[in-house]
Amino acid sequence: MWETRSNMITRIDNFIRDEVEEYGDRLFAAVLLVISLIIRIVLVPKTNWSPDYLSCLEPWVEEYRALGVVKGLGTAIGNYYIPYNIVLALASLVPVRACYPLAAVSCVFEYIMVLYAGKILAWLGKKEQGAADMRRVLFAAMLILYLPPVILNGAFWKQCDAIYSAFALMAFYELLREKYYRSFWLLSLAFVFKLQVILILPVFLIAYFCGKKYSILLWLRLPVTYLEAGLPALLCGRSARDVYGIYFRQSDQYHYMFMNTGGLYRLLRSDYSALSQAAVFATMGFLVFMFAYIYNRREKVGDRELFLTAAVTSYGCFLFLPAMHERYDYLAVVLATLYYAYYDRKKLYIPAAIVIVTSVMYHAYLFGGNTLPEEAYAIVCLAAFAMMVMELVRLLGAKKGEVENADKDK
Fold it and tell me: Which pTM does this prediction carry?
């Protein structure tokens, strides 16, 4: 009898091991997804540490509850553009605390973002090698869900950076696939949710001159969608000047060279009134410099190079533009992490350094206090950015086949 039981246990153990061996990657991904969801569920009701939620988001949802959706949209509630105001209005219809529907929307877009991160990497792998390394794809995509800034942003802070980032990744995916109208339509959706999507726009312009043959007129999709997105508020009685001036007011809201970020201006302690305009033009100069370098090597610009360019230009804009919040590097952090997690895991310390600084900045805002001298954060961010630029230079300077051979050695 004992021998029979022992054989049965052995068969069960063998079955489990065989299933894990055959479907291990999918099982691990499923477990990671479940754990990531549990983390977010645990964090959602913890609202006492989010000043933005307590002083802004929750009161705005309560205003919509008091006024109703139509009257609320006709009133100047909050400082977001109309699409996210509609999210706030719909959240007011759910008979629970505002934190639950707001965090749920952001977290749903986090998973959409991860889905399209995987699609981008799978597309890159298919084009370069005929078939993507799905283990690498799963590793890189799942890693995004566990980045502290991503976890804290939506579930804990109740912010919505995942929404515009998800649409931006969708747009970039369609750009790589040369589905240009769809790409710019998605990019325009990202634009009407958050103005910060402008940080990734340079790579779309670079793509135009370096092999992606779309009409320049597709850029008109952004202002057209901006106008269309404001119509619900206009129909509810809000003035056109009030509605369409929201992004202009946002861009002039904060008069600081940096706001709880690492980067050049934390290191230099620059004065906004003296240097903000010069900083904007200096950032434009950086972008022109990058464009000229890449354009002169446009025959070497493939989808991988565009992917890294998206990370470099978006993070560069974050570092060099004035009035940047700690959350504005959200998409750049995701792009940099994806690139190195898929292509060069030995250099994951580069995005890891950025993630650590951003996480410390989140901690400083949500809980108070810094753990290192503030200049250290600037040095880390600038060093990581310099290494990303050097990686792009290496890609664009390598002879045909050198990059592929180097990747095989990793």
Answer: 0.93
